[in-house]
Write a structure and sequence with these properties.
about 5% helix, Tumour Suppressor Smad4, about 240 residues, mainly beta, 18 strands, Immunoglobulin-like, elongated, about 40% strand, 2 helices
C-alpha cells in the first residue's frame, strides 16, 4: 500500500533540486498531520541548478487508487511524476497514512479481492546505459570529422514492465526522443521507438551522428532514459555528452 502524497513530501529532481508544490483551491482537500494532501493537477516549482533547469512539475495521477476530493484524484507517493524537462522526480513521505483503495469497485458481499502483485511491489526497475559518458570536442571534430557517431546502449528490467521514455536535455535543448525525431538533417536515431515495454528485460539504442553533435552548445547534454513499472516506480539511466569548444 503506498502512502498518500502531502505538502510535507520531499520532491527532488536528479540534480538535487527541491520541489515546492502550490496546491490549487479545493475546499474538500483532506490533510494528514496538518499537511494538505496533494491532488492531481497541483503545480510545483523546483530549485534545480542544471541547464536547462528542471524548473517545475505538474502532478499527474496514475489512477491506481479511488480516493478523490471533489472528484479530483488524491496523489500517491508512487505516482510517476516528471519535471518539465522530462527528468523523473523522487517523492518521499514519512507519515503512516496509506491508501489501499482501488479503482475497481469492491464486491457487495464476500472477501475483498487481493490487489494484483504489480501494485504491491516496492522494487524499482533497474536501468543502465553504456557508456555512461562521451566527450565531444567541436574543434576536434571540425579538424578530423571524428567521431563519426556516438553510440549508447540502454538496458532495463523489471518484473512488471510498463513503459520507457527518452529525453534530450542540455544547453538550448529540451525535447522528447521516445518516438524518434523527423530526419531533418543529421538527428539522433532511437531504436526501437514508441516507449513500449512488455518483456521483463528491455533495450534501446541511441546513435548520435557526429555532424549533429557538432551543432550542440558547449556544456553537458543528457540523454536520459526512464523505465517505469506498473506501480509507477522508475529506474533512470543518464547518458551524458560533454561538449567542449
Amino acid at each position: 500500500m503506498p502512502q498518500v502524497l502531502t505538502m510535507a513530501a520531499q520532491i527532488v529532481c536528479p540534480h538535487a533540486g527541491k520541489g515546492v508544490t502550490n496546491p490549487l483551491p479545493n475546499p474538500a482537500r483532506p490533510s494528514v498531520n496538518g499537511f494538505d494532501m496533494l491532488l492531481e493537477g497541483d503545480p510545483g516549482v523546483l530549485t534545480c541548478p542544471f541547464l536547462p533547469p528542471c524548473a517545475g512539475y505538474l502532478l499527474k495521477s496514475m489512477h491506481l487508487n479511488a480516493s478523490t476530493a471533489n472528484g479530483v484524484q488524491v496523489m500517491l507517493v508512487t505516482d510517476f511524476v516528471q519535471s518539465f524537462t522530462g527528468f523523473p522526480l523522487t517523492l518521499t513521505e514519512t507519515h503512516n497514512v496509506y491508501d489501499d483503495t482501488t479503482p475497481v469497485p469492491l464486491p457487495a458481499t464476500g472477501p475483498a479481492p487481493q490487489p494484483p502483485p504489480e501494485l504491491t511491489t516496492e522494487q524499482k526497475p533497474q536501468a543502465l546505459v553504456v557508456p555512461p559518458t562521451f566527450p565531444f570536442s567541436l574543434s576536434g571534430f571540425g579538424a578530423s570529422g571524428q567521431p563519426a557517431a556516438l553510440s549508447f546502449a540502454y538496458t532495463f528490467e523489471d518484473d512488471y514492465p510498463e513503459q520507457w521514455m527518452l529525453w534530450q536535455v542540455g544547453p538550448g535543448v529540451n525535447r522528447e526522443l521516445t518516438n524518434g525525431v523527423p530526419p531533418a538533417g543529421p538527428q539522433p536515431v532511437v531504436v526501437p521507438t514508441g516507449g513500449v515495454w512488455s518483456a521483463r528485460a528491455g533495450s534501446v539504442s541511441l546513435t548520435i551522428p557526429g555532424p549533429y553533435a557538432a551543432t550542440l552548445t558547449p556544456g553537458i547534454h543528457s540523454f536520459v532514459l526512464t523505465a517505469v513499472n506498473k506501480r509507477g516506480l522508475f529506474g533512470m539511466a543518464d547518458a551524458k555528452v560533454t561538449v567542449t569548444p
